[in-house]
Each structure stands twice: as C-alpha cells, then as structure tokens.
C-alpha cells in the first residue's frame, strides 16, 4: 500500500481465529503451554464436537487458526476448538530451564494428553451437553494424536470420537524426532 492512511489495517492476530489465549502451567510436565481455544455457544444439542489440534514439527498452534474459525462459523458456534504450542515451539516455555528437555514421541504424547485433560477438566466440564472429541494432527502432530489414545484417562477415552491425520508419513515423522531439537534451534518460533 503506497498511502498508509487510505489502506485498511490488514494485520491479523490470534483473536481473529480463537476467543481465548491462555498460558497453562503444568508443573509435572515442566512447561508453561501457550493455548488457544474457542468454547461452544450455549446450545441444546445432542452432542457438541470438540476439535483438539496438534501441529507439526516447526509449526505452532496457529497452524490451525483458519480451520478453527471456519469450523466455528460453519457449525454456527456449536463446537469447540483447542490448539496449543508444543514443547520447543511458539510461546511454550520450560518452567525450570535447568531441567533437560526431551524431544521424543513419549514426551510429546504425554504433553498432549496432559494439556488436553487440563483443557477438558477446566474449560469443558461445565458444558452440560455430551462432548465428542476429534483429535486432529498435522504431520508429526498426527503421529502424536494416533499414539495418545491409550494414554488418556478412561472418561476422556469415552469422549474421543475419532482422529484425523493431515499430511503425515508416520514413519518419517517418528524418525525425525531424533533431530527435532536441532531443527528447532534453526527455526524461528515467533513471526511478526
């Protein structure tokens, strides 16, 4: 735009896609997780879908920003969406920097389960309608979603309706875990 005064502000923020952005501190995981979510509008429905997103290596929760907004629009607010920055990504930070940070599948899966259960208990338990969770993962996130089911508590397992994996070659994603720490060192975790 050559004349800034005549141009509309085209910058976007997380608030254009999610209704809340919160830092969730989980001491036993030694991380403060950056989370984004939109809760369902109060509605008398038989079931409300809850889309739980996990991004791929080198990305962030905002990978799912557009999808989150479109789902909420198409379903007229009769759904919930939740995404978070995984360890070493975006705005998620270790609580105690002196402790070792591992980038293996078990650590990512344990984080995913802990953050999802925290979200479910603190934000979704007041919702009186039946909730149907759909885990959605991109690339490495898809592998994490498929590996997480057996680690969820029994009450959450009953709510999981399905898993969607986007753009994943699971074997390659798992093999890449050995190099995630080096990959993340050379990848910016925040963009303007």
Total strands: the figure is 7
Main beta-sheet strand count, sense and barrel state? 7 strands, mixed
Described by the principal axes of the CA atoms, the overall outline is globular
In percent, how much strand structure appears in the residues? 15-25%
Number of distinct helices: 6
Poorly predicted runs of 5 or more residues? none
Helix content: 25-40%
- What string, H for helix and E for strand, traces the elements in order? EEEHEEHEHHEHH
Topology:
Layout: E1 20-26, E2 31-38, E3 47-54, H1 65-74, E4 80-84, E5 93-94, H2 105-124, E6 130-138, H3 140-148, H4 154-157, E7 160-166, H5 170-176, H6 180-185
Parallel strand pairs: 3-4, 3-6, 6-7
Antiparallel strand pairs: 1-2, 2-4, 2-5
Helix pairs in contact: 2-3
Descriptive overview:
This protein is of the alpha/beta class. Helix content is 29%, strand content 24%. It contains six helices and seven strands; from the N terminus they run βββαββαβααβαα. The protein has helices at residues 65-74, 105-124, 140-148, 154-157, 170-176, 180-185; strands spanning 20-26, 31-38, 47-54, 80-84, 93-94, 130-138, 160-166. Strands 1, 2, 3, 4, 5, 6 and 7 form a seven-stranded mixed β-sheet that branches. A hairpin with a 4-residue loop joins β1 (20-26) and β2 (31-38). α2 packs across α3 (140-148). The longest helix is centred in the middle third of the chain and has 20 residues, at 105-124. The protein is globular and about 45 Å long. The two termini are 18 Å apart.
